[in-house]
Design brief:
The protein is mostly helical and about 400 residues long. The protein has one domain: Growth Hormone, Chain: A (Up-down Bundle), CATH 1.20.1250. The chain is built from 16 helices and no strands. The two termini are about 25 Å apart.
Length: about 400
């Protein structure tokens, strides 16, 4: 058993995940409003910026994931990615121009974006070493803390954006990245919190690629997750503009939308944790895609902001599944390589950002946000079909631990 730290590690990791959640919750609902509405980027330019960042982010995430399984101290990678977040969002706040937004989102945020998965890789390895029976539980519990940030922060960020400046949300995110970096700098001061999981040894005569191979069902599942998450990105980019232009709302309403969704997510995650004991992850993730499709499709037909808020029950349930069950699903993808497997979370997210940004740029050129949402609903159905089609033997079955 590894030596115990005198630091309150669980409390620090919980605080870390809260601030990690703040970095997303303070900025993600406002990205298209800042880029398109405030800085006057064309939808095509905004989409290109997000697409470039997604491509670079994929390369960075895979590289860091592979390296993290070989480093004696993976905490350093978290610190580096957190400081990149300080720089990227600090640039947008300090110099709110089209070019600072472009440079930050296309070149610096691809590094910062890996912070989320590197945090979870460290969490998984730490608890596997110190309390293996509770490792999966702690991953889920700390993901719930991340969700709490989404409950608390978006309404506050919306108020800040409305009363002061929308660019202040990037200051909040930059300071939160600094908090994440500070927590891991404190952990690095204690040698007992340095953890490493040895990757499996390759059999003699086998290649490196063979040890990293993914079963076809897993590949289909990952592709399905990419497509379903892309539908969520289309929703994320489009809904703020849809609320403001089609439903007559304000930036405060955008914050309420994100906060209400997160508030619904938290209890749904507890329900989903129970449902994973009854049905396979593939079943639940496929169902989540259909729930998201129903929400996005119905939202595209609305003219009332009040009715939109009621529909957020569906959004919270679908989002909870796609953002919580996906973590243990992805971490089991490559046996014995937690860092590399967890980096696939970033690959899924980044590929989804790329697809979502491209779709947003193409579909919103004429300013028709309703049609964009309708297409997003179709994308969600397609992703669910890929997940289900590639894993049809596991649909409706109980979860089985992967070898």
């Amino acid at each position: 058993m590894a030596a115990r730290s005198r630091l309150p590690v669980t409390a620090l990791l919980g605080t870390n995940m809260f601030f990690s959640g703040v970095t997303y919750a303070a900025t993600l609902p406002y990205a298209s409003l800042v880029g398109v509405d405030t800085l006057s980027l064309s939808p095509g330019w905004f989409a290109t910026v997000m697409a470039i960042g997604s491509v670079l982010g994929t390369l960075v995430s895979l590289t860091l994931g592979y390296v993290s399984d070989k480093l004696p101290d993976r905490r350093l990678l978290v610190l580096i990615t957190a400081l990149s977040g300080v720089l990227a969002h600090g640039m947008i706040y300090a110099w709110p121009t089209q070019w600072s937004f472009t440079l930050a989102m296309a070149l610096v945020m691809p590094i910062a974006g890996a912070c989320y998965s590197q945090c979870f890789a460290y969490i998984r390895v730490y608890y596997v070493r110190h309390d293996p029976a509770r490792a999966d539980f702690m991953v889920t519990a700390l993901r719930t803390v991340f969700t709490i940030a989404w409950i608390v922060v978006p309404p506050i960020a919306g108020w800040i954006a409305a009363e002061f400046s929308i660019f202040n949300v990037y200051l909040v995110s930059s300071l939160s990245h600094a908090a994440v970096g500070g927590i891991f700098a404190l952990l690095m001061a204690d040698r007992t919190t340095a953890v490493r999981m040895e990757p499996p040894q390759r059999a003699e005569g086998t290649s490196l690629l063979s040890s990293l191979a993914l079963p076809l069902g897993t590949l289909a599942g990952l592709l399905g997750l990419v497509v379903m998450t892309a539908a969520m990105r289309i929703l994320t980019f489009t809904v703020p503009l849809f609320i403001v232009t089609d439903l007559g709302g304000t930036v405060t309403d955008v914050g309420l939308y994100a906060g209400i969704t997160a508030a619904i997510e938290a209890p749904c995650m507890l329900l989903l944790a129970y449902l994973t004991t009854l049905w396979s992850k593939e079943t639940l993730l496929s169902a989540a895609g259909l729930v998201m499709a129903l929400f996005i499709g119905l939202a595209s037909l609305l003219t009332s902001l009040t009715m939109f808020y009621w529909l957020l029950l569906l959004n919270g349930l679908g989002t909870a599944a796609l953002m919580s069950i996906n973590i243990p699903y992805i971490q089991d993808a490559i046996k014995g390589r937690v860092g590399l497997s967890t980096s696939l979370m970033d690959v899924v997210a980044i590929a989804a950002n790329l697809l979502g940004a491209m779709a947003f740029g193409l579909l919103t050129t004429g300013g028709n946000y309703r049609f964009t949402l309708m297409v997003g609903a179709g994308v969600a159905v397609f992703g669910a079909a890929i997940m289900a089609g590639g894993n049809w033997r596991r649909l409706g079955s109980r979860a089985v631990a992967r070898a």
